[in-house]
Write a structure and sequence with these properties.
This protein has two domains: 169 residues, SPOUT methyltransferase, trefoil knot domain (Alpha/beta knot, 3-Layer(aba) Sandwich); 65 residues, Orthogonal Bundle (Helicase, Ruva Protein, domain 3), CATH 1.10.8. By secondary structure, it is of the alpha/beta class. 46% of the residues lie in helices and 14% in strands. Strands 4-3-2-7-5-8-6 form a seven-stranded parallel sheet. Strands 1-9 form a two-stranded antiparallel ribbon. The termini are far apart. The chain is globular. It has ten helices and nine strands.
Length: 247
């Protein structure tokens, strides 16, 4: 017996795509690979006709069910595990682990059993910014020839979805708990930053830079909702104690 990624718990998110046709092409890729959910973070409403032309009638249902959001933070709020895609392989000192699509797909076999997962793709010209990558637990880089490193948006989606579709692992009885959602994690990070500032633990000139290290640390742990509540409880007690010391 072999387990596969639970594609019912997989959502593809396109963050501010520039071309409506690429949304349609992505919808068709999803249909090919058995993934049904597509979110779009938009700066403006895409051209419906251009999307339909590239999706064809085969993926019309996916186009009809697209959910639109104004910000990436809103789009990922309810997800337990977020995979970001990146072409930049520079300094990783304050960034998440970077894997190839096949390794990513292998990791999702267990995680997808009880957790909602988002795969986030950036815009065609700039990808995902560092501020957008902070929401991700792991980053995926698609290897390419040095002669041409850029990949069309829908092609990148197809490569990742193909690896998810093909990945199978020998089944084993293991407990796979639900992770904390992105909105729970973001509230925790905001609380940690406030606490660290209160006790002078991080540099006030650029607190978000130092928080990137904290984010990278916790992204490796895969926190559960109860653990997030414990961490925030610790923060409240630290702040209470710090307040008492100042009076």
């Amino acid at each position: 017996m072999y387990d596969s990624v639970n594609t019912g718990n997989i959502t593809i998110i396109l963050n501010k795509p520039k071309y409506s046709g690429n949304i349609g092409s992505t919808a068709r890729c999803l249909k090919n690979m058995g993934i049904e959910k597509l979110y779009v973070v938009k700066s403006r409403l895409p051209d419906r006709e251009a999307m339909q032309q590239m999706a064809t009638h085969f993926a019309a249902d996916i186009l009809g069910n697209i959910r639109y959001f104004d910000t990436l933070q809103e789009a990922v709020a309810d997800f337990h595990y977020i995979v970001g895609t990146t072409a930049r392989m520079g300094s990783k000192s304050a960034r998440q682990p970077v894997v190839e699509p096949r390794e990513m797909a292998s990791q999702l076999v267990d995680i997808s059993k009880r957790n909602e997962i988002a795969l986030v793709f950036g815009s065609e010209d700039r990808g995902l910014t560092n501020d957008e990558l902070k929401y991700c637990h792991v980053l995926v880089n698609i290897p390419t020839s040095d002669r041409l490193t850029s990949i069309n948006l829908s092609h990148a989606v197809m490569i990742c979805c193909y690896e998810i579709f093909m990945n199978k692992r020998e089944s084993a009885e293991r407990f796979t708990p639900r992770l904390a959602t992105s909105s729970e994690l973001e509230a925790m990070y905001d609380h940690l930053k406030t606490t660290f500032i209160t006790i002078d633990f991080i540099n006030l000139d650029n607190p978000d830079y130092w928080m990137m290290y904290i984010r990278r640390f916790f992204s490796r742990i895969k926190l559960y909702s109860k653990e997030v509540k414990i961490i925030r409880g610790i923060c409240r007690n630290i702040e209470r104690y710090a307040g008492q010391q100042k009076t």
